[in-house]
Amino acid sequence: MRLLKLVVCLALMVPTVASADPLTFVSDLISQSAPSATTTHRIRFTVDSAVPPSGRIYVEPELGAYDIPVGFDYLDVDVAVATSTSFYGDRPTAAVADATNDAVVVTPGVNGSLYIVLNSTEGIAAGDRVEIRLGSNATYGGAGDSLVSNPATLGSYRIRLRTTDSIGATIDSGTAMIVMVASVGVHALPETLPPARFNGLPSGTVAAGNPEIEISLNTDEIATCRYATSTGVSYASMTGAFSASSNGQFHHEVIYDHEDDTAYSYYVRCADYYGIFNTDDYEITFTIDAEQTAGAGGSDGSGGSGSVPNGSQVLFQSSVALSGLGPPGGRVFVLKDSVQVQSVQTSGTGSFTANVGGLERGTYTFGLYAVDRDGNRSATHSATLTLGQGTTNSIANIILPPTVALESDTAPIGEPVRVFGHTIPGREVELIAIPDSGILGGSLQYSASSSQGVQGVSDGFWEIELPASRLSRGTYDIRAHVSVGVVESRQSGPLYLGVGGAPNPNLFNRSDLNRDGKVNLVDFSILLSQWNTDDEIADINEDGVVNLSDVSIMLFNWTG
User: Fold this and answer.
1) Taking the mean position of all CA atoms in its chain, how far away is CA 347?
2) 231/97 same-domain check
3) Mean pLDDT for the stretch of residues 490-515
């Protein structure tokens, strides 16, 4: 039985008294949403007004929301604060507050609550972001061994948060919410079908002078494949075996001593992980030509044995044509497996075409990005393609993301911000500015049309002004995309805008790839599985490729 993890975080501000300011971006992230399950909590909020030294932070769940065990104490609680210029930093906790330690006071039980007494030296400044972690995996140095238990009844529960001064007068207050949902079971049906086989190669006529031929095929699942030279041989009796690629679905083997002017047939059967095997033959049939043609030393892609300009001894080379739209008058750079192979100019309407040739059969990832006439770079569009030997392939209708620029990455509070860039002419650009809390409800969304131009020629320029009245202190993640009909580009960027101070992107959240509140080996393995791709989740710094830069950021935010 697998528990469905559900996290509901609401920024519902409920002032407790008329004079109190609201806490903003309030959330309580839980690791399990099943009733009665033990769980961790990651509580976050931003204080509107400063909390002085010896002030307090109260965490007061409504009746039954937290079941806090006896023995839950300061070792199970971590407190950290992020400022406009720094990432989350630990505030040490202890049983009693002093000049350096915050105290944690816990009321255990099914109606449990707790509060934190700040040390006598350092308070929390207005606009700072606070994070409180509850549970034995608390990140910033907690050494405890206790977890909070969820309520036993399905439904939603409010968590009241407030800050006070040293004598208990409320400063800020707010409310988060958690939701209990029923456990969800996953039941897998038993495997009954054998592997499907397809894309058998070679086929047709192969150039003369090739005594060594690689035969291959694909399966729709991980499998082990064998072959025979006569039909009707059972899988168990077949003596020829294929080698498999790392994903277990591409099977290949080089067979020797083929002769010119001869037809060959190989009969293939496969078995999957569960031992379900084929009872019929999949035939790979081809003929070795009677004599070598001009292709043996020419350029028609069908060369024979030896050093063949347009293919290896056993494979003929393939090509890929890439075409689409981007910023007019810019340049599109083409990457093959993260290595640049060529660049092409976009036309006055933004169209481009690029051709990559000389490719052996296999799987390739192509990335394309544009640099507009002002030198601004777009995000990378990627596509992965498996090529057969001697084939001509096409990836069309590529819509490159808009380029995005800011006049400055820092803006004073009370001033509008101009965002601009280039894209396909005459299209609607959708822009989103996400505050560093990551709560979509606080996001700003705008649109603008790129310039159409005259007589089919345009620079595709667009711009949007973010009004000062919508921008509060903090860091914003700026992204944009464009659509052509039903085809939509990926998001650009991001760019980071700091309002009231330098931008300070929350890279801890981006390092937590599986969103379990920890940055550890699970996240690292996810990152490695996307190495050298432009996967949007694993590309932590969003520079278009998963590489050592992303590893460095993850290690900086490591929790274990």
Assistant:
1) 32
2) no
3) 79
